[in-house]
Amino acid sequence: MNLESEFYRLPVTFDVARLREEVERFTPNAWRAHPQGFEGNSAMILVAANGEINDDLKGMMKPTPHLLSSPYLQQVLASFQTVVGRSRLMRIGPQRGVSSHVDINYYWHNRTRVHVPIITHPDIEFVCNGKRVHMAAGEAWIFDNWKTHEVINPTDTTRIHLVFDTVGSAAFWRMVRDAHRPFEVKGKGKTGGSVKSVAVEYREGLATSIEYEKHNVAVVMPPDELEVAIEGLLSDVAQDNNLATAQLSGVLRDFVYDWRACWAVFGNDSAGFERYRALLVGALNAAKEYSSGLKMRSNDADVPGVLSAWLGAALNPDMAQVYGGEQNKAARRATNGASRAVPRRSSRAAPTKPTLRFTRPVFVVAAPRSGSTMLFEVLAQNRALWTIGGESHQVIEGIEALRPASRGYESNALTAADATPAVLSALGNGFMRKLVNAEGARWHAMEDRPTAVRFLEKTPKNALRIPFFKKLFPDAKFIYLHRSPEGNISSIIEAWRSGKFVTYPDLPGWEGDPWSLLLVPGWGKLNGVSLAEIAAAQWRIANETIVKDLAEMPRDDWCLVSYDQFLEQPEVITQELCNFIGAPYGPKMREILADRLPHSRYTLTPPAADKWRKNQEEIDSIMDDNVARVAKLIDGIRA
């Protein structure tokens, strides 16, 4: 948010000892990498979309189990008397920092971020617009993140701050009015209010009431909001090129006029989404010509990047279902009982199929850590195939009916019975929103979009979902990638130990380290067993399920690939796979495979035939009849 001063220290303090006590209760595996990838930075999610572990900027914000287990952190958030959006503990390692950057996402247009330092050191500095402060433990600060900012930690201390995003409230902005400003506000000659800080002590058993963000983006941005945003943006464009600025202004103001006209016809009605999208694409394409080389005056950010971020926030069709679902729930609660007395025709619209057809989609299925990401990333370079750019955990588990929590955390398995018309509609639209081709072009941004695509998907959890996808997409093809038990189980062990593959950090009833990778049926029986036994169970159940499910469909619909053979003969295997799925194997694929295979994005250490031997003693202990039986099953279907 663009503020009057770089920094504000709010007139409130907190019990540092109690904050540290709650923070230090969390296990190391509860932390996750920083979403922007800043080296040495990590975070613990306290409030997030749907109360899950994610970094989403939109969606209904709810507390995660981490926050619900921390009574004082809840009291701290409640003390600001404002609506709470995304919240987390942000950690910066020794001798690390956050590099200089600007937050240009439209999300920040009307939000500020509150910092409450918990563990810090006097030499750790926060820099904004060239001005430096040390935020002391127990204080509360906000800053102008529209300006260039960074954090410098030259010490051996691991810095931890509680941070949360908020649009504010009257009470909150009164706190800001009374805040201390360490730097004089230019032209006003003041350094902030003189109100004494209030100490918020921990109160045992205090019931807290926190309001969380539910409506943080518009399905369709109202024209008045869009106009204010555009005018504010234009007023900040540097005037080094008056002609280009004037031309850009004309394009954007015409866009606002057309948006207002479209709004008058459709409002939030989904019937207008395509027209809104066409207006957005047209405005962005026209603006490119005039905004290239232009900078924002206040932070030196590139205008094209800001335009893309701000205009992209004007249409969010994916939120129509989220908000509509919440409104439907409220309506059902309000009419509970009356609807039973008087039978009525349901007003809920029948599920609609996506406007895009997925023809002969390709699913790579494998046990976790089988090398499927490497295979996926090679095939994704084929110009005949489209992907969502990565794995589809959030798309699939973002559907309420498929969410593990909604299913009692039984497992990641989905059956043909789960493949309802409503799920097909939601899943198809979820894939459609993120669809990209081999060149990185987004389907939604294309003026001349294809009406049918070959879709490639790879998510390890899909090892337990083959009947589900076959019911949704009867013409689907499946590539089964398998890896030797020794190498695969060893890699699963290493993934658990790394803490980088945690999928369910607070799995109810689980007593071991945070659950990583595939949630297999019967996981509760693994409580108390060794990590090698858990890894072996994940490998065995995944492969056993794949073999069983593939055996129930026509042989022409699936093929088998050995990970070791793929490493040894990538060109031969890839050409065979392209032939199987009916995709061309042309010069681009040959060029990609001419050199050694690139490591996948999830590789912990480079592939090596005997890498598993570092865990040989553990692996030898679990190489029982069950593992041998599944290995024979795989050999059997290969024949």
Describe, in short, the structure shown.
The chain is an alpha/beta fold.
Description:
The protein has 21 helices and 22 strands. The strands form six sheets. Strands 3, 4, 5, 6, 8 and 13 form a six-stranded antiparallel sheet that branches. A hairpin with a 2-residue loop joins strand 9 and strand 10. Helix 6 runs antiparallel to helix 7 (273-291), helix 7 (273-291) runs antiparallel to helix 8 (303-312) and helix 15 (485-498) crosses helix 16. The protein is 36% helix and 15% strand. The protein is globular, with a radius of gyration of 27 Å. The chain has 639 residues and is α/β, with parallel strands linked by helices.
Topology of this protein?
Elements: E1 7-9, E2 12-14, H1 16-23, E3 32-33, E4 41-49, E5 61-63, H2 65-68, H3 71-79, E6 87-92, E7 97-101, E8 112-119, E9 125-128, E10 131-133, E11 141-143, E12 149-152, E13 159-166, H4 170-177, E14 198-200, H5 223-235, H6 242-266, H7 273-291, H8 303-312, H9 318-334, H10 338-341, E15 357-358, E16 362-365, H11 372-379, E17 385-386, H12 393-397, H13 421-434, E18 452-458, H14 466-472, E19 477-482, H15 485-498, E20 502-504, E21 515-516, H16 531-550, E22 558-562, H17 563-568, H18 570-581, H19 587-594, H20 616-622, H21 625-638
Parallel strand pairs: 2-14, 15-18, 16-18, 16-19, 17-18, 19-22
Antiparallel strand pairs: 1-11, 3-4, 4-5, 4-6, 6-13, 7-12, 8-13, 9-10, 9-12, 20-21
Helix pairs in contact: 5-6, 6-7, 7-8, 15-16, 16-21
